[in-house]
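Protocol check, entry for the methods section draft. Step 1: assemble the input record (protein sequence plus ligand SMILES). Step 2: submit for complex structure prediction. Step 3: store the structure tokens unaltered in the notebook. Ligand used here: pyridoxal-5'-phosphate. Step 1 record:
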Amino acid sequence: MDKCEEEERELVALARRVLPGGGFGNVAHETVIAAGRAGRVWDVSGKEYVDYLLGSGPMIVGHAHPEVVEAVCEQAAKGTTFFANNPHGIRLAAEITRAVACAEKVRFVSSGSEADLYAMRLARACKKRDKILKFEGGYHGMSDYGLMSLAPKRAGNFPAPIPDSAGIPASVGAEILVAPYNDLEAAHSLISAHRGELAGVIVEPVQRLIPPKPGFLEGLRRITRENDVLLIFDEVVTGFRLAYGGAQAYYNVIPDICTLGKAIGGGFPLAAVAGRAEIMAHFDKAAVAEDEFMTQIGTLSGNPVAAIAGLKTLEILRRPGAYEAIFRTGMALMEGLSETLKRRRVAAQVVGVAPMFDVVFSQREVTDYRSARGEEALQRRLNALLRERGVLKGESKYYIALAHTPEDVAATLDAFGSAIAALLEAAP
Ligand SMILES: Cc1ncc(COP(=O)(O)O)c(C=O)c1O
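Step 3, stored output:
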């Protein structure tokens, strides 16, 4: 074993001693990543990976993009946080209002979880009603309200939520209604039956990897409007990824409120709630009555390092051809993976949209959380085989970066072919 491998082994052992479960709670703990550049990362032992984890999405232009690094270093030398307005944060908010159709005003926070928590609270403050409707399998962060029927192990009865975590007060479940994603009829009947107590509907426009059926988002928009309920798009993943204007631009459906994260922080902790001015007024003490005001403070909110990283990332994404390149890479990979699965007669399919997708080990049509649950053990095994072959990805997603090259795609398809062969050998 060389020195670097020994160092990685020691770090994994140290992590087991000092971190619950040996990790930060995110992905596989036996890999300790030391560096990243463009579409690749390196672990402490020096092993190189084509990286589709992309920090769980923020690194959409690639790791350590020279322009982002330069801007961040320049700001870091001038101070990293002030707890006061700063030029980069103000300019980032202005850029978001230019790009995102529903965003007339922006409130920064530090994580997508916080953004979703405040977006739901904002809907409640606005409508003076308590309930929120979400879709089974939809991810809206780690708050007590977000962790309802995100990944239920058993099929519950709609609209009763199943909490995803220990420690959530039972009373929270009473304020959340759950519907099946892509089932407009079910959503319609729940929204109209509960309109007197429902403040908002929160949805991932592309739920994890599942694209909306034609008419689903448009239908939600119409039904929420007809019932005087606010529509919240959780665009933490889709914002500046499906298109510069996010999923609301891509599908041409404009919500009342959206949340943004990942891409807008350029790899630093920054997320946002955005929406129409009269809704966002609840964050402004001077604009609403005292009992309608939403206190909201965060030590690092809008900090200048994250804001300039986000601004630079958006500047790079605005350049001609950026989204075409992301979609071209994603399509090439989706097609290549599908073709291998077909050729090897694997009972699996590629699900998603070009900037984010994965293999699901099931042949059923995937339209909601229940139909998206394939053979998860096979997926975990495939991910491990890919990791051995120099491809790093999340548990259930490939994220595409602008920095991924045709060579990255070719290396991935080679690794995928070999990983599938190994998978079939073990369980033909
Ligand atoms: C759709 C969606 N919403 C919210 C979040 C939470 O964001 P964060 O991890 O920044 O708290 C995530 C995280 O992956 C997400 O995918």
